[in-house]
Specification:
This protein is mainly beta. 12% of the residues lie in helices and 31% in strands. It has helices at 44-55, 166-174, and strands at 25-30, 36-41, 69-71, 86-90, 96-100, 103-110, 113-114, 119-120, 123-129, 140-141, 146-154. Strands 3, 4, 5, 6, 9, 10 and 11 form a 7-stranded mixed beta sheet that branches. A two-stranded antiparallel ribbon has the order 1-2. A two-stranded antiparallel ribbon has the order 7-8. It is globular. The relative contact order is 0.15. It comes from Deinococcus roseus.
Length: 178
């Protein structure tokens, strides 16, 4: 909430001069307990910094669209999960997973298919089995096997630097080429 100064001689707000106000970005975040807060930031760089800061603690800034987010496959190992309030971990079987809004999404790698009848690129996605309580528009797949996708990495687009984890990028660059 933004306070508006009052004119001492009346009960009406004093108008601000346009030249003295800077446009601010409102960032609406929701915590893991459902608490909602609004934070004002001055620019996109500060917004991403604040999203990372709060995201590491599970705060999210919006809902994931039906079908999940879609990013270039080159970002599959460098995406900054804190930006969406998620965190990576290995499950008991050693599989890569992501915890987001109380749900666990498992990494699935779908290999490239190149036949006369079908041609599909390699895809890396994080998904989980659908639950009866999930909204119908989020569910994908056949009636017998339904799932919900958090994010899909596919295509040959270039990496979006602003959405990469700088530590992971540096780690990847320091690994010897195979």
């Amino acid at each position: 909430m933004t306070a508006v100064p009052r004119n001492k001689s009346s009960n009406y707000p004093t108008p601000h001069s346009q030249e003295h106000t800077e446009p601010m970005i409102e960032l609406h975040l929701t915590g893991i307990l459902g608490t909602k807060i609004t934070i004002h930031v001055k620019d996109e760089d500060e917004m991403l910094r604040v999203m990372r800061q709060y995201g590491r603690r599970g705060w999210t800034s919006g809902d994931i669209p039906a079908g999940g987010l879609v990013l270039p496959i080159i970002m599959a190992d460098t995406f900054d999960w804190a930006l969406i309030g998620a965190r990576e971990f290995l499950n008991a079987e050693g599989e890569k997973c992501v915890f987001h809004k109380g749900q666990v999404y498992k990494r699935r790698e779908l290999e490239e298919v190149d036949t006369k009848k079908l041609k599909l690129p390699k895809i890396i996605k994080y998904s989980r089995g659908a639950r009866p309580t999930d909204p119908e528009h989020l569910k994908e797949g056949e009636e017998s096997v339904r799932y919900v996708t958090l994010i899909t990495f596919r295509g040959n687009g270039r990496a979006l630097e602003a959405y990469q984890n700088p530590e992971k990028v540096a780690e990847q660059q320091n690994q010897p080429k195979q």
